[in-house]
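Recall that a protein's primary structure is simply its ordered list of amino acids. Everything else, from secondary elements to tertiary packing, is in principle encoded there. The following example makes that idea concrete.
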Amino acid sequence: MLLQLAIIGILIALLPLSYVFVRGSRDKYRKLVWITAFLTLDLIMFGSFTRLTDSGLGCPDWPGCYGHSNPHAAMEPIAAAQTALPSGPVTHVKAWIEMIHRYFAMGVGVLIIALMVLAWVKRKELRQSPWYATGVLVLVCVQGAFGAFTVTMKLQPVIVVTHLMLAMGLLASLIWLGSRNEAPHAVAPRAAGLRWPGIVALTLLVIQIFLGGWVSTNYAVLACTDFPLCNGQLIPEMDFRHGFTLWRQLGMTADGNYIPHSALVAIHWVHRGFAFVVLGYLAWFALRARRLEGLTRHARWLLAVLALQLATGLSNIVFDWPLIAAVAHNGGAALLLILLLRLNYNIGLATRTAGAAAQPSVAARAT
């Protein structure tokens, strides 16, 4: 079974690898980084689709499905589980969704292995340490381990959220690596003044992504069924203690009782309230950044994706959590992360340029 799964992962990775290595371009490493980053974004969105369709336990073992490499070979145990619990987490459709997600993840893993090998082989030509690409491989291995824990620990919320945050961290690492391998371009020197605002914006977004993942994994999206109020109240009854207890089973409190609705309301309300803080700050940051050379394009995209996030977030409440809007909301969070990383990287270029320019001036004054 493990050999079959490995072959599937290699076959999935062959198409993007062929595109990179068969074409005559000399810049293979950079292209492989960006293709892997793009597929990682797709994987994050398909992961959200897997979670939102309640397919996370479509195959309740790991890495295969009832000891097989594909759900077709496991038709009998899947049918038995579906017959015993027709509304349960195991169905033929959910099993395929879960396994396609795993196949896709293995393909991305193969691409990152190829990326690391290429970084070591071409380390002199690339003129950068191959240890960064090696670190990305370590990160994807840790991510895979938490993917296994997600199944074996029956969708325990803190494990699922950690799996999500590691996926976002993997995407961020690939975006940063891709940015480092691009040709430097002009950035307005004044952009250096946005260094700390950019770091704050990125920090706020990471917190909000965690809160959004906590809402999703606890199925608290519809805990508040109206907007701008929450169940007809500005400040509803909320149970923060049970809502934000990290180590507990899905749908349960740490004491083993069913989680109260007020705890789900607390989870939803905190995410909703903090969203306005993040939305306001990121909009202010983007408006400042769009006036500066080298930041304009990414800043405009940031404003556009912020509008998309607001629309999809509200539609989840108003239209009772439509699947396409929920997946788009998860993808929008990843896009915001990409754009903020690109902006922070370019601001870093301006900061380094300003520092290099200041050194001759200091030396001249000393002379």
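The mean pLDDT is 92. The chain has two domains: 1-183, 188-367.
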